[in-house]
Protein 1
Amino acid sequence: MSDEVLVEVEGGIAVITINRPRVKNAINGTVARGVVAALDELEERKDVAAYVLTGAGGTFSAGMDLKGFLTGDFPHVEGRGFGGITEAPPKKPVVAAVEGYALAGGFELVLSCDIVVASEEAKFGLPEPKRGLVAAAGGVLRLPRRIPYHIAMEIALTGDHYPAGRLYELGLVNRVTPAGEALAAAKEIAGKIAANAPLALLATKRLVTESADWSQAEMFAKQASIVNSVFGSKDAMEGAAAFAEKRAPRWAGE
């Protein structure tokens, strides 16, 4: 990790901050590798159940560092994608906390997250066509799966900016906050997630993300291969015991 990617762990939540505010948190190779290094450690930690991804200085990310691009500094990591997550998002749940701009690759990072909290002043967009590029880090692939086709095409083809309120109406943003409060709201949601059983969270996210193309004939068999170990886990027994004894569960992640 480097100073361009900051990590803070508290209460079962890891806040990962892109820390290049002077360039609106544009993503370069150092950031991408820093995110990968952070996640490689955090994914194995039992004291971390959820992530919050955000940017420093009042901006989420303006996308790829175009000056770096011109010099061959590509913000991709083999097998992980742009910014270290677009091709292989983390196994644990990720909440995006968006202030300011989430444009181009910045928007694609948001689309790699599971829940999106945005300030009322946040702006989203895929301006790649304005620069002779294509939103190839998941933007044009994921966006039509999250919002209606014609609106996704408008966003992808015009390259214009769209306010958080509009994306909230479309169901892409979970919660809109006053300016400056996106991180606090994202941490609140992540805290509710982190209070739940770790194995159940991993299985639930995996089912939601993998089941989109499962046929009706195979879906329950595939689900069983993922969830059977959860039902036989120590945490499942602990959850039932805690309910019966009217106390908070003590999860072991086993």
Note: The chain has ten helices and eleven strands.
Protein 2
Amino acid sequence: MPFSADDLNLISQQTLRHYEDRAEEFRAGTLDHDVSQNIAALLDNIQGPPPYRILDFGCGPGRDLRVFAARGHHAIGLEGASRFVEMARESSGCEVWHQDFLALNLPTAYFDGIYANASLFHVPTQELPRVLANLPAALKIGGVLFASNPRGANEEGWNRGRYGAYHDIDSWRRYVENAGFTEITHYYRPAGLPRDQQPWLASAWRATLSAGSAP
């Protein structure tokens, strides 16, 4: 059965509450994660001279916002958990928008890149086409989307208090291409390990739809 509006609201609110309740624990546990490969996959594929305007989609406590800002880019965070919004603003000094992924309000043709590190997997598959359709219009023509999500066999559901959808590359590719992107690259993380020890699917995409023409 499709999720109703009430179902989707419950999924969103319970997932956000999970992060609200564990905000300090999450910040401490992820502070030293090395995502330099992911940041490079975004920045190295943006065309034109820097600095770039970057949307950190699901910025959490602001770890990667600080990296983008330190490199001279204009970084803006987007986050649904209010405690993370406060943390990210305080730690990075960047502008951070408080928005639910299921109710986005993004400017048109504004960003050079969108960085969605460990965030889009929280979108129920039913809503993924609608959510992804917002992204190419928010990018300048030729802009880049980076996404990293825990991979799976296209299952979804609750996992330790959070809702997640776990796509394989074929499924993920289909959704992102249908939203108006072409694939630049994909890889699995952590690097250098056997595939069964690489739980993360990372990918970079170039927007092919002109601003305002997303389906």
Note: The chain has seven helices and nine strands.
